[in-house]
Amino acid sequence: MKYTIAIFIIILFISQAAQACTLTKGYRSTARLPNIQANNDSGLYYDLYHKAAFNIGCQLNIIRSSKKRIMRQIKNGTIDFYPGLTFTPARAEFVLFIPNGLPSLDIGLTRIDVEEIKGPEDFAGKILLSTFGSTELIRHQHALVVKRPSELSHSIAINHILAGRADVYVDELSTIAYLLKDNLRKKELKYHLNCCGGLTDLTMGFSRKSIHYSEVENTLYNPEKPLSFDNYPMMLGSNSIAYRFYQSLLLLKANSYTDKLYLQYFGFDVHSIQTYNEDTEEKIKD
User: Fold this and answer.
1) What is the arithmetic mean of pLDDT over 56-69?
2) Mean of the pLDDT values across residues 57-63?
3) The dihedral of CA 129, 125, 184, 37: what is its sign?
4) Cβ neighbours of residue 128 under 8 Å, at least 6 residues apart?
């Protein structure tokens, strides 16, 4: 009898421990290729976050629904995190933005013979292709002409550049890289990696109401600077599972696992950004 009770207690303890370390990821029901499919959860996000959770002894649970419903559940803490979320002050009231190791970078796309675009001034004399209703930026002011078609998909934009109907198109690196990964004419095109703001981090949003979350004051926060994912009054408490999860993501980045995933799914070597920046710095020194 004592032996049976002991086994029951051990099973109960293991079950509770597993439940206590289940991280729930929420995502909209539609696809975001190649990060996640519509009819299943496979993709870059699964490979990255499943590995990070596994490495700290946690399971990964995934809930798919409308983004509005997912965000509501993140707000109340029933879902732990959203895998790729852009910082806004309103969202920061209920999530903490944490770098996930993936790059975020707006780049310019031109034909191969266009000279390097290093800043807004280099848009002078060029026809800039932009989405209808897009925010007016400095590069728009410098461009010779800004074309804003009423319906402009990413594929149509690439075709406009190839056909010479526009000189440059700006979008996020991952979007362009994925579209060009298997494009037979990609060698006719050129990436401009330093034209449009520079490299930053893609962030996930972790619920501040999650049972796996705790926070402490961020001593590096500067109230004189605008709020951002890397300038916020609070930071992860080191005694939380969320903190261990973040450290696991940092380790995956450090050992190149994350960069290899990016190359696998997007066909783009993230190290080329670093190499490009280092070469640019050397030219400036010279």
Assistant:
1) 98
2) 98
3) negative
4) 139, 140, 143, 144, 145, 146, 147, 166, 167, 168, 169, 170
Query: Distance between CA 60 and CA 52 in Å, rounded?
Result: 9
The structure tokens 């051990």 sit at 10
| Domains contained in the chain, CATH given | 2-102+202-275 (3.40.190.10), 106-198 (3.40.190.10)
Q: pLDDT of 228-237, one tens digit each?
A: 999 999 999 9
CA distances from 117 to 184, 192, 201 (A): 24, 6, 22
Q: What percent of the chain has pLDDT over 70?
A: 88
pLDDT digits (tens, 9 = 90+) for 175-229: 999 999 999 999 999 999 999 998 999 999 999 999 999 999 999 999 999 999 9
Q: What per-residue confidence (pLDDT) applies to 249?
A: 98
Q: Which of 33, 34, 35, 20 is nearest to 82 (CA)?
A: 35
User: In this model, does residue 32 exceed pLDDT 80?
Assistant: yes
Q: Where are the alpha helices (DSSP H) in 133-226?
A: 138-142, 154-163, 173-180
Dihedral sign (CA 173, 158, 108, 146): negative
**Averaged pLDDT, 89-106:** 97
Query: DSSP state, 30?
Result: S
**Cβ(127)–Cβ(140) below 8 Å:** no
Return the SS3 of 73.
helix
End-to-end Cα, the chain, rounded Å: 81
- Laid out side by side, the sheet with 145-147 consists of 145-147, 127-129, 168-172, 106-111, 189-192
3-class secondary-structure state, position 150: coil
Locate all alpha helices (DSSP H) within the chain, ordered by sequence.
2-20, 44-54, 67-76, 138-142, 154-163, 173-180, 241-254, 257-266, 271-285
For the chain, give the number of residues.
Answer: 286
Asked if 205 and 91 count as a contact pair (C-beta separation under 8 A), the reply is yes
